[in-house]
Amino acid sequence: MNPAALIPTPDAIPVPWGWFYVLLMLTFLLHLLVMNAMLGGGIIALISTLRGGNENSLLCKEFSYKWPYTIAFAVNMGVAPLLFVQVLYGQFIYSSSILMAVWWFSIFGILILAYYSAYIYDFKFEALGGLRIFMIEFSVLILLLVGFLFTNNMTLMLQPDKWFAFFGNTGGTLLNLSDPTVIPRYLHFVIGSVAVAGLYLALIGHFNFAKSAIKKETLINKGMSYFTIATSIEIVFGFWFLLALPKEIMMVFMGKSAYGTGMLVIGIVLALVALYFSHKRHLISTCICTLLLMIDMIFMRDLVRVAYLKPYFQLSDLTVTSEYSSLMLFLVTFVIGLAMIGYMLKLALGCRKEVTK
Amino acid sequence: MNYPVWDLTTFGGGFIIAFVAVVHVLVSHFAVGGGLFLITLEKKAYKDEDANLLGYVKKHSKFFLLLTMVFGGLTGVGIWWTIALLNPAATSALIHIFVFGWAAEWVFFVGEIVALFIYFYTFGKMDRKNHLIIGWIYFICAWMSLFLINGIIDFMLTPGAWIETQNFWDGFFNPTFWPSLVFRTGLSLVLCGVFGFVTAAFLKNDKLRHKIMVTCAGWVAVPFVLMLAGGWWYLAALPEVQKTIIFEKSPEMGTYLSALGWLMPILFIASMIMALRLPQSFQKGFCFVIVGISLLYFGAFEFTREGGRRPFVLYDQMYANQVYIDDIPKIQEKGYLASSKWINHTEVTDDNLMEVGHDLFVYQCSVCHSVDGPMNNIKPLVANYDSVFGMDAKLNGLGKINNYMPHFFGNRSERWALANYIVNGPDLRDPPHHPRQAVSQSASSH
Lengths: 357, 446
Description:
heterodimer, A: 357 residues, mainly alpha, Formate dehydrogenase/DMSO reductase fold, 75% helix, B: 446 residues, 2 domains, two-stranded antiparallel ribbon, 19 helices
């Protein structure tokens, strides 16, 4: 049976796909930044709790203040790319989600638990004492599980040939565990999140946003150390991920496509330059390099998606209804929203002292 | 048909969506009105220089943040998650038609979160005037979220001119858009009072508690009028067909309608009781009773509204079981199996009769009927059918006599397979009591 026969007929899009592509890439980058701060920060706080000591304890306390924000924004910033990916690739992601429906459905329920647990960790940090570690373990494990489920779905949606498994299991309990790319892809995201969260903590120190008694230098040093170690491991996992890809997709980055190969080379160079800057403790240069690296990796991730789906679908196949007036609604709203948020942040930065809980 | 169907059996029939949706809508509507409640009380506290009242507002804002942002925000994402799993074809249609409506709603969602965090974490630290401005921005963003989602939800019930024009704005500003907006705005303000009772009931200061209880009772009473007016207008704006389905045709609508009729005055009276001077122990328990009444009331309303769409999920476009009206001629010509992407059979044979019947049940019936589940259990509904011929005739009449259900989509042998599965299959009868009848009999029966 031909896997293409399973792929649902896509719905028409109101404006050419390029609009959605730009919005998808942009909002996914925003999601990735906040999600990394959330997940990686949780992992760093967990490691710090296990390591113990005054400085590590202060680092945990500092992160506890920031954790609820990062969860809220990670979820919020995840909504937009999920919307745009459904617009462009709905026929794939709806199908793969149903194949693993039980797992997929569980995500928002367990996220609620992780979120409340993070709030308890924040509001009751001192009172929890020794129990603190259980709260953070609980939340971090849930976030790691959510990430793992996402990796499963994001890979399953790209492989309609694996969808035949549905005929043997219609209960929604499938996963994509037989795919050799799942584990390296997942670890690539998890380790990367620790690196980005390290920079996030260092930036909190650099811009004096710390609320706890932790010293600015400690935050910067510890954050950059986490970045350096995680990025070094990340390079190894990156190669594992690359080699785990099916040969024809791997070759996109190994000479078959000048664009793909160029993106890989730029990625490696940026990672090495970022490592150099972090070793020298040049925070802002490291951050700029990392941001460019993340943009590069997002485009590479897209190339992987395009290569997987090439036998079945390309974005230019989508029918366009040319309904531009609703796009105007969004663009105007977006500008108003940015202005509104800018204004609110200006007011908030005018009174940096937060309320005592 | 176009998409796979998650075989839920017990939890089929819309149970999961009902479960997620009802709790979400209660909290999400509170999230809309709650902003106005906070700033109104905060302003009054400043005006009267009332430190106790201000302390209450601050406490209430923490409750508000934890309930609406965590639970409300994530169950909102959860509804989207759920509908995409249970009805991907309709979800995809709504996403594609209204993508920029959803995207604009997302912008206001970001604004809401930023505003609420700033409002809560700068309480007492920010200049009073600016703090109130942040509160207003929160309320405007939250109300705009309601405004945008309201258009899309009501499009599902009353698509209006969109059917002809396929124009975004015709679909968005559909015939029930404005009445629904008034109803939901009124309800969101009523819920401020309802949830205000909860935080007020735990205040130790008797005088303050009573004062806030009276205020909250007022927040229930005044917008109640707006809610009733919106509700009446909503009913008046419904096209005759939808009205008939709700008031005359759908079998269990009567239960929801009478629940609505009873719960509305009960909610009002229960809320007014809270304005009396009562022991705190009573108030601590009774405030949750009122939240429960609100949940049932809102649940009954949502069930009624959704029921009004029957047999469609997108009115006049797509049936509840994800079949587009436009696809029916093709299905009748080719058969349902041959038109489906996710069924492993292309035709009915003697050997696959039960399997095909099962697949047809999952794809055409399970969206509204569970098997032994809490929602619309199929078993008692088919218990009296002993004959496959009788069930086959019943399926043939679907959508004609009882027009709250879709037609059976498919050819005669497919219908016969479904009838066989329902009457003789191992899943829907306790115990199975007839030998199965072969596919070839279907021809002789007609």
